[in-house]
Amino acid sequence: MTVVDTPDPRKGPKGKVPFIDDGGVRIGDSSLIVDHLVRTRGVDPDARLDSSQRATALLVQRALEDHNAFVILYTHFIRPEGWSQMRVQFDSVPAIIRPLVVRALRRRMKKMLWLQGVLRHSDEEIVESALRDWRAVLTLLRDDPFLFGNEPTGIDAIIFGALATTLLTPIESPIRDFLRSQPAVVGYADRMLARFFPELAPAPSHEPAVPASVRVRAVPVT
Ligand SMILES: N[C@@H](CCC(=O)N[C@@H](CS)C(=O)NCC(=O)O)C(=O)O
């Protein structure tokens, strides 16, 4: 498997990242990619889950991908604390067209967040809505190392993905402050980092290990 960074989500079959190229078969959307890999590689990270756990996992996924993800776009691209960090991501765009590209992207982002609904709320309301998401996830995390016991399943990848963009980047926000104040969250991120990204440990309880980059990726699978 080769992981490739692509600056342009439009290259993907759904115009979004992530996507994979599996021997010429191109698939977009992380859930569809997982389905494809389960089908073709015969490895199912959720094989041991019962129907109630599967239902919980789906609802957590929806909360994080269909609500929290929009809050992350707000904290990273709209809030000044986020935008001052994120704008350097566009340094690779030729200087002559950079202001144009950056302005168009930000305008599109604002329009999308307005239509989705998040931007109709005050900063305080948006932050509170995200804290509610995380408090709910925290309630489920309880004392187990991973959401469903001692071994990670697919939902842990989703939780960690959402967590990492807030907890492991230097983008200040009250959401990040809350997450960093929760030993259960920090411990969970430590475990996920040690297990799947040991090169990035030590984790955030000590020093943020990952620079402020939210990278877009295409992932050809072999
Ligand atoms: N639920 C989808 C979300 C994909 C998604 O929204 N990707 C964003 C980046 S994280 C994207 O490509 N945005 C570019 C665009 O909308 O033009 C998944 O998990 O694959």
Report what the structure shows:
By secondary structure, this protein is α+β, with helices and mostly antiparallel strands. It has one domain: Glutathione S-transferase Yfyf (Class Pi), Chain A, domain 2 (Up-down Bundle), CATH 1.20.1050. It has eight helices and four strands; from the N terminus they run βββααααααααβ. Strand 2 and strand 3 form a beta hairpin. Helix 2 runs antiparallel to helix 5 and helix 5 runs parallel beside helix 7. The C terminus is likely disordered. The structure holds glutathione. Glutathione binds next to loops.
The CATH class, by name, is: Mainly Alpha
CATH fold node name: Glutathione S-transferase Yfyf (Class Pi), Chain A, domain 2
Distance between the termini: 5 Å
Across the major sheet, the strand order is 1-4-2-3
What's the order of the H and E elements? Answer: EEEHHHHHHHHE
Count of DSSP strands: 4
**Runs with pLDDT <50, length 5+?**
208-222
Mean pLDDT reading: 90
Largest sheet composition: 4 strands, mixed
Q: State the shape.
A: globular
Cofactors, ions and other ligands in the entry: glutathione
Structural class: alpha+beta
**Which percent bin holds the helix content?**
40-55%
Supply Rg. 18 Å
The number of helical elements comes to 8
Percent of residues in beta strands: 5-15%
Question: In the residues, how many domains can be counted?
Answer: 1
Q: Mind telling me which CATH architecture this is?
A: Up-down Bundle
